[in-house]
Amino acid sequence: MVETSIMEFKFAFFTMLKNLNDGSVVITLDFYATLLCICIVLLIGTVITNKSKFLYKYDIPVPVTGGLIAAILFFVLDVTFGVRFAFESSIKDPFMLMFFTSVGLGADFASLKKGGRLLVLFGIAVCCFLFVQNFIGVAVMSVMGENPLLGLLAGSITLSGGHGTGAAWSDVFMQPPYNFMAAKEIAMASATYGLIAGGLLGGPVAQHLIRKFSLKPTEKNYEGTVSDEVFSEPGKQRLITSESFVKSLGLFAFAMFIGTTISYMTKGTAITLPTFVWCLFSGIIIRNLFSYLNIHQIFDREVGVIGNVSLSLFLAMAIMTLNLVELTKLAVPLTVLLAIQTVAIILYVRYVTFKICGSDYNAACMVAGHCGFGMGATPTAIANLQAVTNHFGPSRISFIIVPVMGGFFVDIANALVLKLFLFLPMFG
Predict the structure, then answer these.
(1) Could you tell me which of 324, 321, 282 has the C-alpha nearest to residue 100?
(2) What are phi and psi for residue 6, nearest 5 degrees?
């Protein structure tokens, strides 16, 4: 047995361990150095995304751009020079929980009344498709002899959930009893593909339906239903002050405290859910309870700022630490599955979503939105809607229903659907 000889160097912000036998080096960064790296990754991602027409056109998130560049750089350093970086992992979870809490705090039930019957029908279509994505994922991976968890990760977790949901669930799958160590790499790759595909598919599919059936806008049916400042008054702003920011931060802390407490108390029971789901639920309850009792009016723009910053920091950390070696081992089955999922959503929105929602112009617009967050994320869905309505005419009801569905409802439904799938014997 050959003994391993290690040389250790300690500095103010990092520790370096050098294996004298093979020359490999592991550099462990502390909290502050890790936070600095995350900020640098986001700045690099911002510059490159803004300069690239492709990345900018399809709304590729800045953390994804910067994080992938960093992950590739670290991969090259590891393979070529034997230098690896280990970051302070404790920084990641608080940002993840803050993001999902922001989703809950932004979920105003009053918005649901505006959607009416069409919101319910669209919700049915969206929920059913979550099952479709996961059935396809699990079935394809089972046939190919791969871990069925890969099917869930390249199913509704990332394609309907996006990068944030994918990163959160991958952390769950990397721990016992699942121990699927390639989960994070698969989740980030699937979510990135879905984001691009969702942006590419939504407009063309909706345009095909509009032209084939000669659909026209029917705005008169929904006059007076829109009061959402995000769309009716996009230029309107509210001043963020230190006092209001502290209040919003206090709401985040309150919701996260409740969510983490419930998660701890329900651990090992029949209602065990990931901590981020409980934080999302807590945010929803606080938002609507405070509104109903007229205790405090949630500052949506401020909540959005905190949530977006948290998501950016969380994603940058998650993506820049990807193990690309593990991802290359599963490239073939993942590519096959994502290709099948792409065909599936085209057929589903054409023959199910469009039909359920009334086969009219608004239904075609919601098809564009469903492609956006059914394969990517809510911002992609909104971009799809804007592209279609700018070309063919307004559909205000779509701008109410799609953000409500993609912004928070699909995350709740997704968590419940995934919980049902994880009860299957193959995941036991």
Answers:
(1) 282
(2) -120, 135
Nearest Cα to Cα of residue 397 among 217, 164, 268:
217
* Cα Rg, the chain, nearest whole Å: 22
* Nearest C-alpha neighbor of 396 from the set 256, 241, 220, 250: 220
pLDDT tens-digit series, residues 93-126? 899 899 888 878 887 777 667 778 899 999 999 9
Are residues 311 and 99 in contact, defined by beta-carbon separation less than 8 angstroms? yes
When pLDDT is averaged across residues 39-49 and rounded to a whole number, the result is 93
Amino acid at 122: F
The whole-angstrom distance between residue 364's C-alpha and the CA centroid of its chain comes to 24
User: Beta strands 83-86 and 25-29: pairing type?
Assistant: parallel
Tokens of 46: 């911002």
What the block records as the tokens of 17 is 């361990």
Q: First and final CA of the chain: distance in angstroms?
A: 38
Going by C-alpha positions, the residue among 71, 70, 61 that lies closest to residue 41 is: 70
Instruction: Write out the DSSP string of 385-406.
Output: HHHHHHHH---HHHHHHHHHII
Predicted confidence at residue 3, as pLDDT, reads 52
Exposure class string for 127-139: b at 16+ Cβ within 10 A, else e: bebbebbbebbbe
pLDDT at 11 over 90: no
- Angle, vertex CA 110, rays to CA 105 and CA 116, nearest 5: 130
What is the Cα–Cα distance from 163 to 261, expressed in whole angstroms?
A: 25
Neighbours of 228 (CB within 10 A): 18
Question: Helix (H, G, I), strand (E, B), or coil: what is residue 16?
Answer: strand
Report the distance separating Cα 146 and Cα 418, nearest Å: 19
Weakest-pLDDT range from 17-26, 297-306, 369-378, 381-390: 17-26
Q: Which residues on adjacent β-strands are paired with residue 9?
A: 16
**What is the secondary structure of 202-270 as a DSSP string?**
HHHHHHHHHHHTT----GGGGTT----HHHHSTT------HHHHHHHHHHHHHHHHHHHHHHHHHTTST
- Asked if 424 contacts 163 with a C-beta cutoff of 8 angstroms, the reply is no
Distance of alpha carbon 273 from alpha carbon 275, whole angstroms = 6
116-120, 168-172, 230-234: segment of lowest average pLDDT: 230-234
User: What is the dihedral sign for C-alpha 388, 393, 394, 398?
Assistant: negative
Q: Residue 148: is the preceding peptide bond cis (ω within 30°)?
A: no
Q: Say if strands 83-86 and 6-10 run parallel, antiparallel, or are unpaired.
A: unpaired
| Global pTM value | 0.74
> Cα(53)–Cα(176) distance, rounded to whole angstroms?
42
Q: Residues 110, 398: contact at Cβ < 8 Å?
A: no
What confidence tier does 343 reach under pLDDT thresholds 50, 70, 90? very high
